[in-house]
Amino acid sequence: MKIAMKKVRASALLLLFALASLPVKSEVKSAPAEDLHLLVAAAVTNNPEVKSSEARWKMFTSKAKQATALDDPMLMLKLQSVSPTEPWVLNRDPQSAKVIGLSQQLPFWGKRALRQEVANHEAESWRWAVEERKLELTRMVTESYYQIWGIDKELAVLDKNLKLLADFVAITELKYSLGQGVQQDIFKAGLEKSRMLEMQISLQQQRKSVEANLNYLLHRSGNTSVGTVADFALPQVTLSPEQLYTTATERRPQVKSLTSLVLKSEASQRLAEREKYPDFTLSLEYMFREPVSTTMAPDPGDDMVTLGVTFNLPYQQEKRREMRSESGYERIMANEELNALKSSISLTINETLVQMERRRKLVELYKGGIIPQAEQSLESALISYQVGKVDFLTLLDSRMNLFNAERALYDSQVEYMMKLAQLEAATGTELATPSKPPHP
């Protein structure tokens, strides 16, 4: 009888070692791996907000092309100095005539060029707004992409531990039936299994939520299945904070958009200064006269031409002062918004680099220290549990420590890649491309 029990214990020990040594699978589905660059390209091409931004930019571009256009010329037709009772009789009065005239309004020199400059800068700001939206969309797609990778990794770890806990329950039940265990161990193992099932349900729902968000960004059906994400190595950002800030000020679309608004406000101020000068209207009239033969004043009826110029009197100076004030405040506003953005970029760069360095060190710590130590601790607990030196709870705690360390590793890897995406969005450029992890 004792020999049989020893065999049972030995079989159980081998089973535990075999289960504990199972590798964590990198994928939980058989779907093909997603390509981040293709997802980003699809989002930039199909997202309605990008299309809306592009249409707005083209609208302002069309408005800019209208800025230098002159007002339509005016055509004038009239009968001059005719009798109201006989308007068509033109040969009784030398002043009677049929008149045709043209007039054209011309703004003061330099106003048209300034109006076009204002409109061009405004259209340019909207063009960069389109690029900023694409940059933000790239960040959101990238974050969802790596969130899916992290969720799949945690689901794989959960799946492995659920199988292991199921065998723990079977072994504790076997030991209890042989009088070598306590019923509390069975309840504890069952409770931990239920908690993991709860966590699995939560992660599965979380993946569906991230999938739905990704499908929304790509403007495709919300129930479209998203495949797995390939493993990657953490890329290294080699640029210093100062270099990143310089890159951001040169390449960030929002910086260029606000710079265009600053230039627009400066052109608006110059235009407001020119409003104190009058606009002109040139006119040309041609008078068709008929001969008049009277005893008092015979007239041969020669045709006549009238040339004229009229201009407004810039009398309303209060209005023009307010126009100059308006453009001045617009320039101050645009400058301060640009300064605020640059300060925000600097803060984002420094904070993100600190957090990325923290996550990188945590990944190295988990891979090189915590996880190997947790694995050794579990192996030791398995051996000790077999010979009765530790109880079942100690064995279970060792397994949970390894489980939590693996989850924390994946969480740090995902956070690092998400922070990298945020850094690229802040600087307006791709800083690094994640590579596949090296083969062990």
Query: Biggest sheet, open or closed, and with what strands and sense?
Result: 4 strands, antiparallel
Strand order of the largest sheet: 1-2-3-4
Total helical elements: 9
Share of helical residues: 55-70%
Q: Runs with pLDDT <50, length 5+? A: 1-30
Radius of gyration: 40 Å
At the fold tier of CATH, the topology name of the largest domain is Outer membrane efflux proteins (OEP)
List how many beta strands DSSP finds.
Answer: 4
Give the N-to-C terminal Cα separation: 46 Å
Under the CATH scheme, the architecture of the largest domain is Up-down Bundle
According to CATH, the homologous superfamily of the largest domain is: Outer membrane efflux proteins (OEP)
Mean pLDDT: 82
**Total domain units:** 2
Task: Please tell me about this protein's structure.
The chain is an alpha+beta fold and 440 residues long. The protein has two domains: 23-70 and 107-278 and 313-427, Outer membrane efflux proteins (OEP) (Up-down Bundle); 71-106 and 279-312, no CATH class. Helices cover 66% and strands 8% of the residues. It is built from nine helices and four strands, in the order H-H-H-E-E-H-H-H-H-E-E-H-H. Helix 4 (111-177) packs antiparallel against helix 5 (183-217). The longest helix is centred in the last third of the chain and has 70 residues, at 317-386. It is rod-shaped, with a radius of gyration of 40 Å.
